[in-house]
Amino acid sequence: MTTPSPPPLCCKKKTKKKKSKFACDARIFSLMKLTRRVFAFLMVLAAPVLLLSSAATKQKAPAKRWYLAYAGTYTTKTNSKGIYAFRYDGETGKLSALEVAAESPDPSFVAVHPSGKFLYAVNEAGKNSMVSAFALEAKTGKLTLLNQLPALGEDPCYISFDKTGKYTLVANYSSGNVGVFPILPDGRLGGHTALVQDGGSLGPNKERQEGPHAHWIETSPDNRFALAADLGLDEVLVYRFNAAKGTLSPNQPPFARLKAGSGPRHIAIRPGGKFVYVVSELSSTVTAFHFNAKAGTLHELQTVTTLPKDFSGRNDTAEIAVHPSGKFLYASNRGHESIAVFAIHPTKGTLTFLANVATGGKEPRHFAIDPGGNYLLAENQLSNNIVVFKIDLATGGLTPTGDVMEVPSPVDLAFFPAE
Q1: I need a labelling partner for 20 at 20 to 30 A (CA). Which of 36, 136, 184, 333 fits?
Q2: Residue 42, SS3?
Q3: Which residues contact 281 (CB under 8 A, 6 or more apart)?
Q4: pLDDT at 48
């Protein structure tokens, strides 16, 4: 004999044996409808609170807008006094003048430390060349000299940091050597930990390649190697970098050679570190390399011109940069007075020429893409100005915004978040 199932809990005490099961089900359905109505009402009340909470969350992490921008200059035979500081609006691309941040002789390249507490500069002065360390005051933009050390070479033209921020790397152009200086806890520079003289076969240009000319040095994304461009040797030198000791030792093979007479000047590394691009001053070209991060070796992929086919005048390329998106590459032409724009193939890393855009001045020795990737600022050394361009994030195209900042002999620009 089968035992009947017990009635639902809602009907157990009040339902007689002969009462219909459907009456109890109806009461359950009615209770469920009431519950849904109450829940809906509570959700209506809570909606404004949820919206306010979402807005508050968005306000807590705004996009960076305000930056300090520091311009390195040449002071010899110019009206410049040293390093200049500006307020930069990352939304509009506008620069507003502050004042001279620090008086310093020929600070041709400056770099803001990742901590934002210090700025470092090289001072080009032949045999009296120096490397300078400054304390950075974020509220005022002012720089206070901490110490100076001999560059241990003639005419330093580039300074960078290793990926730990514990060392500066310096390229000395006229003497053709590279050095490493430790950064002490208080921001001062310590005695050098590495000094390497470039050497090898010289290029065929007897006027410009009479000796080695180190022009650029930075560490690889994983900090295991240091790459250095030498204009006199037509080589990109590769060193193994010891981040614990700050030392350099030749990699095997120790360099990648470019076409004779190229004169490699600066290097740009695509995000991810797989592709490296070298701009050559003497040949007005960009060479794309595949970089083997494990072995520290470079394999040439392609070389392209930075100039229009019908151009025949004097030209020296200068700066090169990859857009933060990794989609576009830019290189400056001094003579043609333009920025060459290239598209980067997403997987092959090769370049496709897109356009030459006039810089609105003479001798664009340097340009900088702002941290947000929205604007490019071209520094025209001989016309004493910085011209702002809006970057089309879809096409890589450059459009002048109409904003021009007058600066005496600008040759480098470095950003620092002021917020």
Answers
A1: 36
A2: helix
A3: 215, 231, 263, 264, 265, 316, 317, 318
A4: 43
Whether 287 contacts 306, CB under 8 Å: no
Q: Please, are residues 339 and 293 in contact by the beta-carbon 8 Å criterion?
A: no
The pLDDT of residue 63: 56
Please answer whether residues 156 and 168 qualify as being in contact, where contact means their C-beta atoms are separated by less than 8 angstroms.
no
Torsion of CA 107, 234, 275, 160, to 10 degrees: -20
* Residues in the chain, total: 419
Q: What's the token pair of residue 208?
A: 């410009």
Residues 108-162 have pLDDT tens digits of: 999 999 999 999 999 999 999 999 999 999 999 999 999 999 999 999 999 999 9
Within its chain, how far is the Cα of 243 from the centroid? Answer: 21
Task: Characterize 382-396 residue by residue with b for buried, 16 or more Cβ atoms within 10 angstroms of its Cβ, and e for exposed.
Answer: ebbbbbbbbbeeeeb
Residue 398, SS3 per DSSP: strand
pLDDT at 57: 40
Nearest to 416 by CA among 210, 134, 173, 108: 134
